[in-house]
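Quick one, probably user error.
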């Protein structure tokens, strides 16, 4: 079962330019992390118990780089938190959602994640994630 929105991912071309914008909006910057496997640098903000992630590509060949090229900056994905990632994957598979990942994989901060293809979710790239401590 989905519990809440965990985070919202926003594609930006420059963290340096975008971080001050979101700080000015009133969000608290919690840190910046490079995820080499995704060729992306991520700035984490917190508002309530939801994170906003700014995603900056470190290579034009990354999926964020291609997203920026095709669609420009903006909303990239919504991530929902679940308590049991394996069970959630089985449920969504059975409900005929198209999965990008066939097995849960490692996300940032020790999470397990998988993505649903936007083709099956009204063009919204959707991530399902589980935190270790809540499993
Ligand atoms: Zn995410």
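Nope, works fine. Designed sequence:
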């Amino acid at each position: 079962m989905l519990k809440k929105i965990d985070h919202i991912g926003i594609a930006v071309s420059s963290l340096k330019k975008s971080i001050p914008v979101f700080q000015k909006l009133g969000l608290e910057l919690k840190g910046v992390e490079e995820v080499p496997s995704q060729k992306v640098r991520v700035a984490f903000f917190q508002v309530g118990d939801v994170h906003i992630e700014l995603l900056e590509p470190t290579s034009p060949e990354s999926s964020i780089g291609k997203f920026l090229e095709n669609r420009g900056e903006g909303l990239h994905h919504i991530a929902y938190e679940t308590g049991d990632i394996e069970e959630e994957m089985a449920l969504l598979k059975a409900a005929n959602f198209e999965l990008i990942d066939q097995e849960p994989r490692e996300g940032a901060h020790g999470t397990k994640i998988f993505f649903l293809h936007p083709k099956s979710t009204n063009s919204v790239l959707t991530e399902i994630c589980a935190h270790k401590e809540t499993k």
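The chain has a mean pLDDT of 94.
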